[in-house]
From TrEMBL:
<dbReference type="InterPro" id="IPR036047">
    <property type="entry name" value="F-box-like_dom_sf"/>
</dbReference>
<feature type="compositionally biased region" description="Basic and acidic residues">
    <location>
        <begin position="703"/>
        <end position="716"/>
    </location>
</feature>
<feature type="domain" description="F-box">
    <location>
        <begin position="19"/>
        <end position="65"/>
    </location>
</feature>
<dbReference type="Pfam" id="PF00646">
    <property type="entry name" value="F-box"/>
</dbReference>
<feature type="region of interest" description="Disordered">
    <location>
        <begin position="703"/>
        <end position="738"/>
    </location>
</feature>
<protein>
    <recommendedName>
        <fullName>F-box domain-containing protein</fullName>
    </recommendedName>
</protein>
<dbReference type="InterPro" id="IPR001810">
    <property type="entry name" value="F-box_dom"/>
</dbReference>
Amino acid sequence: MDLDSFREHGEHGKSKEQTSPFLQLPNDLFRCVMDYLDRESAWSLKRVCKGMSTSKAIDELLYRYPLQLNDVKDIRLGDWNYRPMGQARWNGLKSSINDKNRHHVQKLALSHWCSIGDFKWIEQNLPSLTSLDLSAIKDFVWTPEETWTWKALSEACPKLFARLEELEVSNWADYTAHSRIEYSYAYNDYRFKQQFRLSRRRDGGSVAKMIFPLCKKLKTLAIRERYSGFHTWNEWEVHQRVCCLIDGIKNYCPPTLTKLRVHDYAPYRSLFSTDASTWSNIKVVEIGLYSWMEDRRDRDVIGPIPYRITQGHHHREEEEAFDDKTYDDCKRNHMDLGNNVVQGAGASFEDLLKSLRNITRKYPSVTIKPIDTLRDITLHPFHLVNVNQRRLHGNAQQHIQQQPDPVANVEIQEALQWLAEKCGWRPILAWDSMMCDVFPANLEPSRSFLPKEEVLSRIKAMISTLRSLDIPIRISIGDRTNSCPSSGLDGNLYFGDYKMFIGEGENKRELLAPTQAGFNLAGIAHMVDELTIQYAGDVPGVHGWLRQTRTPTNAEKVLIDRELLGWRRFWERYARLFTNLKKLTTNVPIGIYNDWGQCEGLRELLGDERWEMLEVEEKGGDFGFHGSYFPFTSLRYSHLRRRTRLKFVQRVFFRQDAKPLHLKPKHPQLEDKEREALEITDADIETPDGLAEHCFWPAEQEELKGKAVGEKRSASDVDGEDGNTEAEGPATKKAKSD
């Protein structure tokens, strides 16, 4: 039976009432779809889709996890008492609970300022709740108001914790994570610090000691530590941060516990880099690997950090309230234990990979996987290569030591292969810092780089190694969130003039020349599988979002015209080298896209009949284009429809086979270095006479080419015949090339 018949007659004679208003999907199929949606998606469907406002399935999703960690973390006492984000929101949720929806609630995150009465209300009114997130609740409170303790909570709500299957808490073994609440939550109450610095441990112990023993059905324990990190520890501090963390799980959690979810790097190493426990009952460990890689994104050349473990048990007086008095009875060797934790705990990407490999090999029976997908993690090309010169100081003279690349290390390769096979790791290399005619002179002057040829050779070897491990090579042009200003003359453009010095001594002079688009891709273009090109929404970035009209000014036209010439040189230099390209994703102004249709190199690249195109209509809404197709996004790349910016074109060119493209590069005899230095003249990029129509650039689009760049355009040119950006028909279409 086809889907239309299913919708009309129903399976096994079911009536049409058994279908959902959303695309008329059968209810059972619609519920399967709902498993992949979050609270925000459900709210969008409820508001936008006809017939969904009363959908029971939508209500179930909305109430499944109604208050989440982002809703309650870092709320100060004044905000909790008087602003809508605080207690008013919590009271609103309580008042909305009735017999129809109380069984929908399965998980809740609670604020630091919640009361024992709130826990009692949950115990009595939410019978299906089996998961609590208490990670926003810290052990220290600076407030004159009455505060509860973990012991009082355990005595008040034993039945609530007895039914929990999942519990998320702040790291009970790190004093710093709890003491910094002074700045996050209670800055306005700082005057009460000395008199009202209260601890939730004051009459019994930590959350591990008081709450964990009550959780008889606990299957998953999650640990969150916002201020994770390492520094110089003495033996007492090692006991507090390592032994108390391990013993809190070993001594107080029930045997039903089989999964740990560790969001931060420091507790992960404290738990698994030592021999303090074999973790025989743990089967699955989920780790915050995505955020750990993001933290190391711009730390591409950070060297080892010398953490030290010292003898002694001295500590600050204020840490007494955090001390559970178990140090003297602990029989572990804290010096060895601490060294095992901090050894190799550097800030570099290389250290992270080594740590992952060593720990996964140490616990072969434990499945370690990331909390979030690693499919679209963005990295710098320098992460797996050494590009700096390191000078060693000898008695006679300095000499340069050549460091081997991390990617050449067998251990690193094994870690990368594990990431790809077990975690779906498909990194994206942000190429923006490489896109300069005088690279590496555009990088930080304080760093001493290897010669350009050596840097490019190492990057080429790294990419070749990744391909040998079956890791696809994905290059992005447009990931500028951390490297470029939000506005300025060239803030959102790629092809500005470059400046260099020629001559020596008294004959040294500066030279300002237009770009030749020598962007260091010649050596690796044939290995690239995916290429993404995108622009910020306020291109060309001169006026930012404050511009009053979409029509570019004369100065902006000059910048855009320069950009068109730059792209023509780019495609002329590199397009015929992308012989293994399988996907090209673009989000560019319409004038630039239309001019690409005049680039012979790009036309040849996309001329193979195996290419198909996915066209996505540019429009705003909750489900933006970037959320589905682009691997990264930021506020600067938000493409809500605005009348004050250029119209964008969004296309995905793809092919579904892996065979190389039959492309013939110009000047095949040239080496990579010679190809990068080859001058591309204006004659090389002129539009040839009698240029045939291309399947992806039909003739009607070419009519707008001149108007999109230099001429004043009417509303019909920009948005369609009626001047409206809302197009009729479906938002996407797929067209196979002729």
